[in-house]
Amino acid sequence: MATEPQQPGSTDKGSANDPLKGYDRVEETGVYQMLWDCKYCNTKKLLGVTHKFCPNCGAAQDTNARYFPTDEEAIAVEDHEYTGADKRCGNCGTANAAKAEFCTQCGSPLKDAKTVALRSEQSAAEGAAFLTDSKAAAKTDFDAQKTGGVPAVPKPPASKKWWYIGGAIGVGVAALIASFFVTYSIDVRIDSHSWEKKVKIEAFKPRAESAWCDTKPFDAYGVTSRREVRSHDQVADGETCDSVRVDRGNGSFSKERRCKTKYKSVPVYGEKCYYMVNRWGFARDIKAVGGLKEQPVWPVVQIRAGTCLGCEREAGRSEAFTLHMTEVKKANKKHDCDYKEAEWRAVPDGAVKKIKMRLVGGAKCDTLR
Ligand SMILES: [Zn+2]
Ligand SMILES: [Zn+2]
C-alpha cells in the first residue's frame, strides 16, 4: 500500500481511513528525517532515512534510538518513496525496509515480520516549540508504550472534595425528605370558624402585548415595531491549530497541521411588534365571607354581560371553610386549616383537639382528632 505522503496535501473531513481525531481539518505540511545516535561509536544526530548504517563505524541503525529533531535541525525528505514502516527480522532483530522480502543481515524471509515500534505522536500549539527529543526520551517513550500505552505524565491526585460535597448534599436532601414525613402530635384550641365563597370575574379589555411581528395576532391594533435580537448564530471564525509530528517508522516523520474551527456567536435580529388587543383577562374576585353563625351563600354577581369592550363574565367559583386554631402550649403559634363544610361545622369553637405537625413546620390538617 504505497501512498505519496511526501506531497503536502489536505485531508477532507469524513475520509474513512484517516480519522481526524476530533479535528476539523488535518493537513500534512512536510516529511523530515528522524535522528538517531550510534550506541557503538557514540556518533550523534545520524539521519534516519539517509544513514541506515553508521557512517563512522558501520553499525546498523537502531530503530529504538530514533528521535525527533528540533525544527531548526529538521531535514526534509525529498523524493523518497514511502512503502511503510520498517519490518523487524524475527530471526536476527535487524530492521529492514518495508518492501524488503529477505533480511539484509541473515537472509530470513520477512513475510510475517512485524513492523518496528513507532514513537508516540508529539503535539504542540501552532507556533510553539516541541519538547526537545533525544535517544533517552525515545527509550522512555517505548518503555511507557510497553507498560501502559501512555507515557508517564504525572497526574495530580484527584481531589475528594466533590465527593464530600456530594455526600453532604445527599444527606441533606434525605434529611429534608425524611423530616417532611416525620410528624409529632400537639394540642390545639379551635378559636373561630370562617367561610369564603368567591366568584372570579374576567373583563374584555384592551391589553398591551408584544410578539415577533410574524406571529402577532390578526386583530392587533396600534402596532409599533422595532428590531430586537431574536436568536444567535454560531459563525465560523478562524481556527486553532496544533502542529503534530507523526513517526512513519522508516526513519522519517511527517508533520501535520491539525485544526479545529473556532466559532463566534452572532446576533440575529427580528422585528418585534408592540400592540393592543382586546382580550378576556382576570379583572377581580367577588367574595362573600362569614363565620359559623352566618349562612354560607354565594355573593351577588352584578356584571355587565356580553362581548362589548368593558363587558365582564364569570370565570369560576370556589369556596373554603376554615378553622382557625392556636397551639395550647404556645399561644403565639396559630394555624389555619380548610375542611369540607360538614366537618367544619362539626367542630365547636373552644374545642381542644389533637393535630399532627410536620418536623419542618406546618400542620397536617387531615389529622385533626
Ligand atoms: Zn557508529
Ligand atoms: Zn535477519
Please, could you describe this protein's structure?
The protein has helices at residues 135-147, 161-181, 341-346, and strands at 10-11, 25-33, 35-36, 46-47, 87-88, 95-96, 114-115, 122-125, 183-212, 221-247, 252-290, 312-327, 334-339, 352-358, 363-364. The chain has 369 residues and is mainly beta. Strands 1, 2, 8, 9, 10, 11, 12, 13, 14 and 15 form a 10-stranded antiparallel β-sheet that branches. Strands 6-5-7 form a 3-stranded antiparallel β-sheet, with no helix packed on it. A two-stranded antiparallel sheet has the order 3-4. It is elongated, with a radius of gyration of 42 Å. Bound molecules: zinc ion (2 copies). One zinc ion binds next to loops. Residues 89, 91-92, 94, 103, 105-106, 108 line the site of one zinc ion (ZN).
Describe the protein's topology.
Elements: E1 10-11, E2 25-33, E3 35-36, E4 46-47, E5 87-88, E6 95-96, E7 114-115, E8 122-125, H1 135-147, H2 161-181, E9 183-212, E10 221-247, E11 252-290, E12 312-327, E13 334-339, H3 341-346, E14 352-358, E15 363-364
Antiparallel strand pairs: 1-2, 2-11, 3-4, 5-6, 5-7, 8-10, 9-11, 9-12, 9-14, 10-11, 12-13, 14-15
Main sheet makeup = 10 strands, antiparallel
Following the backbone from N to C, one meets helices and strands in this order, namely: EEEEEEEEHHEEEEEHEE
Question: Can you count the beta strands?
Answer: 15
Q: Radius of gyration, Cα only, in angstroms?
A: 42 Å
Quickly count the helices: 3
Bound molecules: zinc ion
Strand residues, percent: 35-45%
Task: Compute the separation of the termini in Å.
Answer: 90 Å
Averaged pLDDT = 89
Q: What fraction, in percent, of the residue positions are helical?
A: 10-25%
Low-confidence stretches: 1-16
Helix/strand/pairing class, anyone? mainly beta
* Shape designation: elongated
